[in-house]
Amino acid sequence: MTTTVPTAGQAGLERILARAQEICDRETARLLERTPASAALYQRAYRTLPFGVVSSFQKGAPYPIYVSRGKGSHVWDQDGTEYLDYHGGFGAMVAGHAHPRIVEAIHEAASRGTHFAVTTEVGVAFGEEICRRFNLEMIRFANSGTEATMDAIRVARAATGRDVICKIEGSYHGHHDAVMFSIVPNADVMGGRERPAKAPVSRGLVKDAHKYIEVVPFNDAVLLERLFQEKGKEIACLIMEPAMMNIGIVLPDPAYLRRVRELCTQYGVIFIYDEIKTGFTIARGGATERFGVQPDLVCLAKAISGGLPAAAFGGRADLMRLIEQGVSQMGTYNGNPLVAHVGLVMLTEILTPAAYQHFARLGARLVAGCNAAIARYEIPAHTVDLGAKGCVSYRPTPMTTYRDFLETRPELFAASYPWLLNRGIFMTPGDEEQWTLSVQHTDADIDAYIEVFAGFCAELRR
After folding, report:
1. How far apart are alpha carbons 268 and 273 in whole angstroms?
2. Per-residue pLDDT tens digits for 402-455
3. Which strands sit side by side in the sheet containing 382-386, from one edge to the other?
4. pLDDT per position as a tens digit, 46-71
5. How far is Cα 450 from Cα 462, in angstroms, rounded to an integer?
6. What distances in angstroms separate CA 410 from CA 24, 71, 239, 424, one per listed residue?
7. Through-space distance between the first and last CA atoms of the chain, rounded to whole angstroms
8. Do 2-94+352-460 and 100-350 agree at the fold level?
9. Distance CA 347, CA 328 (A)
10. Is the model's pLDDT at 24 over the cut of 70?
């Protein structure tokens, strides 16, 4: 659900933006002053790790906040400061931190042995449960979302005998070469809306990799059909997030996914859902269940196994059986017994129907409180509530495509981030991310977020 509220005019916006810069400068200075241990760890880490972090998504300016531990809905940073956690490990921690049953399940599995590189019964059961939830015929495990999308694309190419990948403008599907194009591109490299540019986002790609990618906007089945009419015989697959989740949250128009399904079937293009973020967070069967459109293949990770590194992809049996016919899909740790046991516990004992009712109730409470503050102080922003996921995006009206994201006000997020951190709310460090609720979040946790956010809105209007 998206919610829009009326906001002030241009003069009011300019005042808000000027005030946001003042808040950002003041709150950032305060944040740096009170996090000397994070600063010290950064200096140490930078000597060993590029950017001083284990993944480039975690980098910060001038340094990131390092977390030392978590419990329930709370985390503590390197300086010992306690926060309510709305970061959620980029969406992985819907169980919350150190959930008693997860801790117990880790001990149960570890006591039997953590790795064999041999398939175990619990791995089979884990796969069966995922297939049941997502209406998949067969599944294979991987270790990250990148591996899952890479493997799904390989299967699609083998199935069709085609080489070209189609993706949505502005979406992220992992860091393998095939999809490292048009990920949050700047306006100067986007190209026209009817034929978006294939802007690469990394050095070191094969020089002609752009020949094997096509880019289309989200929520526009007309342009997708036009592309398929022109190049459908070259396109192996369309990979997409059914709800875009690397620019805040963009919901699909009601008929869009159905039409995409029809077009992929018509032109023999394999339809792949990237449910790395939506899977297990927005419904028991992710976006496949919530929006009622079945793709050919689904890619899963993040919330799949209680914070342990797990991923999977699966779908139609005729596609997955190609792995038995020469399509390589391997991994020493695929279906690891520790991960599989914890994942099975996660799906059958924690992410129950009651958990999704909990997410729905808390999410509605959170966006209602945020909307009240946005309306009262006339902030150019909107909210989206989607299961355990949600966000405030600093644009007055909901987004329908990536290009709408370019109309958001990053200055407002830049001010909100240190403001929230300095008042005990731990958030993701970029305006393209979302909050994540866990089964251990409470009404009091939600009210604390609303109070801090309302204070930020009031400060913008001082």
Report:
1. 16
2. 999 989 999 999 999 999 999 999 999 888 889 999 999 999 999 999 999 999
3. 2-4, 382-386, 389-393, 435-436
4. 999 999 999 988 888 899 999 999 99
5. 18
6. 11, 31, 28, 21
7. 30
8. no
9. 28
10. yes
Beta-carbon contacts of 316 under 8 Å, excluding residues fewer than 6 positions away, are: 137, 138, 296, 297
Query: 2-94+352-460, which class in CATH?
Result: alpha beta
At residue 232, does pLDDT exceed 60?
Answer: yes
Pairing relationship of beta strands 235-240 and 389-393 according to DSSP bridges: unpaired
Average pLDDT, rounded, for the chain: 94
450, two tokens? 């609303």
Global pTM exceeds 0.85: yes
Take residue 350 and report the two structure tokens written for it: 């924690």
Write down the CATH number for the domain with range 100-350. Answer: 3.40.640.10
Please state the domain extents for the chain.
Answer: 2-94+352-460, 100-350
Burial of 76 (0-12, 13-18, 19+ CB in 10 A): middle
Report whether pLDDT(9) > 70: no
User: Contact at 8 Å (CB) between 168 and 198?
Assistant: no
